[in-house]
Amino acid sequence: MTDPIPDDASTDGRDGPPRAVLIAAIVVAVGAVVAILVVAATREATPAPQPVAIAAAPAPKAQDPSCQRLMQALPDSLGDYHRAAAVAPVPPGAAAWQAGAGEDPVILRCGLDRPDDFVTSSPLQGVDDVQWFRIPGDGRTTWVAVDRPVYVALTLPDGSGPDPIQLISRALSQTMPATPLDPGPIR
Asked: Sorted alphabetically, which Pfam families does this protein's record hold (predicted)?
């Protein structure tokens, strides 16, 4: 005796929609997911970099040949930071790098006056063969190369890592000879 076949079962023993309908549904679902991912990727694309504003600072020796040689030798990248356009008018002897749109930039200024706080007893940090004087700030630190023919300041956002100062030290070593330190008197 055989069991009767229920009315809702197919005669070949399979349950569910026909194979062609199932394949079409999978293709439509995969296509929809791909379309959503493409739209999301284009909306999340990195915005175009905006020019960086560099505040003017007194730089009486910015036109010095030492600064001009340095400006020509500056690298396009400082680790994660890439050379950025600056908002006009760009102060003479200044350059900027930025890790990404809207992030704090690395700013270089060449030809500055000796920092007021750089005195005989000031601690210095050597990076390669360049002596740097540190000026702490709020969320940023400025390092001033104090053993070159002109003072060069490099302002770094906190957490920028060692690459910017190492690569600028290398550029300074290649373009400017070391000179004796000239700190101000202790006040």
From this structure: DUF3515
Residue 106's alpha-carbon distances to 45, 86, 94, 146, 187, in angstroms, are: 23, 12, 11, 19, 31
Specify the CATH class of 65-175 in words: alpha beta
DSSP one-letter code for 184:
B
Query: Which pLDDT tens digit goes with each residue over 126-153?
Result: 999 999 999 999 999 999 999 999 999 9
What are the tens digits of pLDDT across the range 87-126?
999 999 999 999 988 899 999 999 999 999 999 999 999 9
Residue 18 CA: distances (Å) to CA of 8, 12, 15, 28, 105:
14, 12, 9, 16, 61
Q: What residue ranges do the domains of the chain occupy?
A: 65-175
6 preceded by a cis bond (ω within 30 of 0)? no
**Which residues of the chain form beta strands (DSSP E)?**
77-78, 81-84, 94-98, 106-112, 125-127, 130-136, 140-145, 151-157
CA distance 1 to 186: 113
Phi, psi of 175 (to 5 degrees): -115, -20
pTM of the model as a whole: 0.74
Q: How far apart are CA 85 and CA 92, in angstroms?
A: 14
Identify the CA nearest to 83 among candidates 67, 102, 72, 99.
99
Give dist(CA 155, CA 170) in Å, integer.
16
What residues does 156 pair with on adjacent strands?
141
